[in-house]
């Protein structure tokens, strides 16, 4: 039976709480890890627990164990949230990932689109079209754990949408339905849920809607960030990001087209190719 441990952990927000083994088990199950390896991982972590340990330390212990003892796709899934944050400080790589994910799900997308509103001009992070619907997407990116996206972002997203919708319907008519959409790589506050539900703002946070949060969509699409390729030095990861190679799927294509031979060694290319073959489904 799973019980709460008396060991106190420190969350990224600075809050303290008892270590809850069930949360770790749930997190490991989400990666697709087998029951046996998940149990072994929990046992490994327990040997390193101490009062005052941070969630960052716990993540590093678990990640280190999975790196050596689990299939690479499980390791990649477990490290997904922090790897997304490691794309920063700019939010542009996250916008590209959102665009790539939506493309997999049948949307036609554009990133960084300048749109004329009724009152002012806006730069929209991602514009997505599907059937007769067009979505104006605000991608709110945070590169530090423990931060929630608050209602001010939702208010801002909806206000921009209203200005754009007014101009679009005036110039193009109402044959196309326009919608606002907020996508974030973190959790959101309860006020954001309330406001989004009230005004009809599409909302995709890291975990919600359940089964269709950003983490679920990325894993299902096989569009894990290139920051998970731990065998590549960080300075080289930065060079890849500068070229717009933000996902392992994009890196796979760049390797096949010989576009990264000036950055990666032959050994790095061979090792990385083996790993991303396991997770790139697109």
Automatic annotation (TrEMBL):
Record keywords: ATP-binding, Nucleotide-binding
Boundaries of every ATP-cone domain copy: 7-86
PROSITE patterns on file: ATP_CONE
Source organism superkingdom: Bacteria
TM regions (residue ranges): none
Pfam families (UniProt xref): ATP-cone, Mrr_cat
InterPro entries documented for this protein: ATP-cone_dom, Restrct_endonuc-II-like, Restrct_endonuc_IV_Mrr, tRNA_endonuc-like_dom_sf
Protein name: ATPase
Species, as recorded: Candidatus Collierbacteria bacterium CG22_combo_CG10-13_8_21_14_all_43_12
UniProt lineage: Bacteria, Candidatus Collieribacteriota
